[in-house]
Amino acid sequence: MTTNRQSAATRETYGRTLLTMAEEHPDIVVLGGDLNVSTFVHLWRDQYPDRFFDFGPAEQNIVGVAAGLAAAGKIPFVSTFSVFGTGRPYDQLRVLVSQPSLNVKLICTHAGILTGEDGMSAHSIEDLSLMCALPSFSVVTPADAPETEQVIRSAATMQGPLYVRLPRAATPVVHTDGYRFRMGEGEVMREGSDVSIIACGSLVAPALDAAESLSGQGIQARVINLHTLAPADEPAIIAAAHETGAIVTAEEHYVHGGLGSIVAGVVARNQPVPVEMVALHGYTGSGPANELMAKNGLTAHGVEQAALRAIKRKR
Amino acid sequence: MAVVTQPMLTVEEMRAAALESRREILKMIFDAGSGHTGGSLSEIDILISLYFGVLRYDPGAPDWPERDRFVLSKGHASPGFYVTLARAGYFPASELSSYRKTDGLLQGHAHPITPGVEMNSGSLGMGLSFALGHALAARLDGRNYRVFALLGDGECQEGEVWEAAMSAAHHGADNLTAIIDRNRIQNDRFTDEVMTLEPLADRWRDFGWNVISCDGHEHADVLHALSEATDGGPTVIIADTVKGKGVSFMENNPGFHGRAPTADEYEAALKELA
Q1: What H or E segment, with its residue span, contains residue A216?
Q2: What pLDDT digit, counting tens, does each position of B174-217 carry?
Q3: How far apart are CA A253 and CA A261, in angstroms?
Q4: 3-class SS at A143?
Q5: Distances (CA, A) of A148 to A201, A279, A299
Q6: Which of A245, B22, B155, B219 has its C-alpha lying 20 to 30 A from A203's C-alpha?
Q7: Is the pLDDT score of B4 beyond 70?
Q8: Confidence band, pLDDT 50/70/90 cuts, at residue B233
């Protein structure tokens, strides 16, 4: 079953939220790479042209300049597509941002496979792995628009490098207005004792739907929105392993190096229990986003089946 | 309010400082058993000219917001940088012995844990972008500091250098000066053999930069070029230098890009630098 929810484009939420922060945070500057309408920072560009710099599609330079601005006390927000913002300037992110731990905010859109028809070169399925491998970066995958707004507000006040992963498509809203995001603290969205579903980003809504369906079969699934992958909320993961005895991870990312790998590492080190991973197992081609998600099992049904497998593996 | 306390040397004093610095560079690299000799010897006269003739800074307050910024993009040539920073008063000369040592202050490639070092380095092509960030921040903050970046000539084979060059001109970074240590040798061999750089001056000019050439070992010439660089920018100074300058058997010898001298070579070099 699928719950009816409103949808909203988190990248638009990003652009609009940033705009509201300009007066409160005079040190924020925004850097773009010729994708400013798509990333919604054109709103900032048009209103604060003196605090906006376009560099064209030259991502190495964008990150290098952002590092210099951060070293001079600015709060640079860098925005482009996820495939271009992470892989292309990876060495600059490593040497100029991560190693000296500079205050650069890399907010990328068009992440995952929800870019659909643009095909595999546009599908960012390695970005979480890349960014979680940089020691000083915080890495956040908001689930919906309300969470995105809170993440962006936190970005301006937290110190240090931050990567935020947003999709192109509008995604279901799973939070109410009163929701309060806490960096590094997983959000238990539903309690349960038979299995834990740990999801992030676009898989949070399918995880909630899967839990609802499982409930109809007498299985109580805990659902955790692990929005922050780095630093990961180890206590929440260990508690899930300890208290429910089986775990499913669900992410719109390659199976290696993302949420599943991080959770499995924590579980293996602390409280070994079965872990099933709902994730991509390789590249996928062009097609409508919902078809690609279904083809790769990134659905409520896929999560539900994984939960049943995990429970079956319990000792 | 911080005070600018660096000594300003005469050209004669700079020559003496450079000679002593060359001995210190070799000692650091010999003691460490590894390090980049050739490029440290080619850049040292440029660094002495900058730190004792041009830059505004306060070694007691390395983060002084009004300081001029110097970015060593060719971060492997850190020994030349470190002896200059020590001479400028950022840390005691005794610290030079910590170069490349575990828990030492002086990393193999320059890193901002060292007082006076602005940027982490060791991967080529990044310094001009980073310097542009500081240059744009000066404009945003209404400060009038200048920003200098020292690049290797082989480093200009990195694409990011030209991304940065294009954007610095586009964004009118007139407080930004790039200096190229044009010693004509890179890691493997002569730059002309690896990848043609000429016409280097024309290439920078085509990217919208003012171009000045100078003899990178004549302090008066370097100082003159640096003073000319204040008139609208961005400006690049192509400083003709000799890799391994000062030691006959290291000069123009690609073998000394990235290795330490042996004991015999070290002794022979010191005699030449007496």
Answers
A1: helix A204-216
A2: 999 999 999 999 999 999 999 999 999 999 999 999 999 999 99
A3: 11
A4: coil
A5: 10, 22, 22
A6: A245
A7: no
A8: confident
Q: Is A199 on the interface with B (CB under 8 A)?
A: no
Catalogue the E-assigned strands of chain A.
Answer: 7-8, 28-32, 52-54, 75-81, 105-109, 138-140, 162-165, 171-172, 187-190, 195-199, 221-225, 228-230, 247-254, 275-280
Q: What is the pLDDT of residues B236-259, one digit of tens each?
A: 999 999 999 999 999 999 999 999
Q: Is the pLDDT of residue A1 over 60?
A: no
Q: Which residue has the tokens 């290291």?
A: B250
**Residue B2 pLDDT > 50:** no
Q: What are phi and psi for residue B162, nearest 5 degrees? A: -80, -30
- Side-chain half-sphere CA neighbours of A58 within 13 A: 23
pLDDT value of residue B6: 54
pLDDT in tens, B219-229: 999 999 999 99
A59 is catalytic: yes
Percent of chain B with pLDDT over 90: 95
Interface test with A, best of B76, B120, B139 (most A CBs within 10 A): B120
| pLDDT score recorded for residue A252 | 98
Cα gap A247→A310, rounded to integer Å: 6
Q: How far is CA B154 from CA A59, A139, B151, in A?
A: 21, 35, 9
Alpha-carbon separation of residue A241 from A245, A261, A262, A268, A314 (angstroms): 5, 15, 14, 10, 11
Please give the span between the terminal C-alpha atoms of chain B, in angstroms, as a whole number. 41
This prediction's pTM: 0.96
Please tell me if residue A60 touches chain B, with a CB cutoff of 8 Å: yes
Q: Is B92 on the interface with A (CB under 8 A)?
A: no
Helical H segments across B89-151, by residue range: 127-141
Residue A98 C-alpha, separation from nearest chain B C-alpha, in angstroms: 10
Cross-strand bridge partners of residue A32: A54, A79
Contacts of B171 in chain A (CB under 8 A): 53
Q: Looking at the complex, does the CB of residue B66 fall below 8 Å from at least one CB of chain A?
A: no
The pLDDT, as a whole number, for residue A4 is 78
**β-bridge mates for residue A249, sequence order:** A198, A277
The first and second tokens of residue A69, run together, are 């601005």
Q: How far apart are the first and last CA of chain A?
A: 29
Q: Is A177 helix (H, G, I), strand (E, B) or coil?
A: coil
Render B142-203 in DSSP notation, one character per residue: T----EEEEEETGGGGSHHHHHHHHHHHHTT-TTEEEEEEE-SB-SSSBHHHHS---SHHHH
What does the pLDDT look like over A163-173, one tens digit per residue?
999 999 999 99
Whole-Å CA distances, A102 to A47, A155, A160, A228: 26, 13, 5, 19
Residues of chain B contacting residue A63, judged by C-beta atoms under 8 Å apart: 129
ipTM: 0.95
Tell me how far apart the alpha carbons of residues B244 and A125 are, in angstroms, rounded to a whole number. Answer: 47
For residue B178, the model assigns a pLDDT of: 98
